[in-house]
Amino acid sequence: MNTINYTKARKILAWIIAAAITALFLFSASGKVLHPEMMNAMKLADYRVIIIIGEIGSALLFLFPKTNVYGTVLLSSYLGGAIIIHMTGGMSILMPSAILIMVWVVGILRNPDIIKLK
User: Fold this and answer.
1) Residue 15 counted as domain residue
2) pLDDT over 70 at 3, yes or no
């Protein structure tokens, strides 16, 4: 009976964190749409539409359990790029690094086999 409760609690926790992370990425994408000057400052204005589409698509893949593995990998790549942009721009890498860790926490909670090497 403890296994059932643990599994249910793990799934609920994963859904809550996944929803929060997805909301964060959707909010971030809306900021890129509404405030293009932010992308101009980082010299990414030419790639703004591609970044927005990638961010929204990756976040939605991440939200749903059947596509969560793909979303985890895509958001990891996206956040790796964000970390590099932050590093080269002299900005703190704390936020994208923390979000990357949370993405993997949800990925592992939803798909424990993701870390098994076979």
Assistant:
1) yes
2) no
What is the spatial distance between Cα 52 and Cα 79, in angstroms, rounded to a whole number?
13
Q: Is 118 a domain residue?
A: no
Q: Considering only CA atoms, which of 9, 118, 114 is closest in space to residue 68?
A: 114
pLDDT in tens, 14-28: 999 999 999 999 999
Structure tokens at 105: 């926490």
Task: Indicate if the pLDDT at residue 36 is higher than 90.
Answer: no
Q: Give residue-wise pLDDT tens across range 41-73.
A: 888 888 999 999 999 999 999 999 899 999 999
Domain count along the chain: 1
Structural domain including 103 reads 2-112
Does 96 reside within a domain?
yes
For residue 109, what are its two tokens?
């909670």
Strands (E) in 1-114, as ranges, are none
How far apart are alpha carbons 40 and 47 in whole angstroms? Answer: 10
Residue 106 located in a structural domain: yes
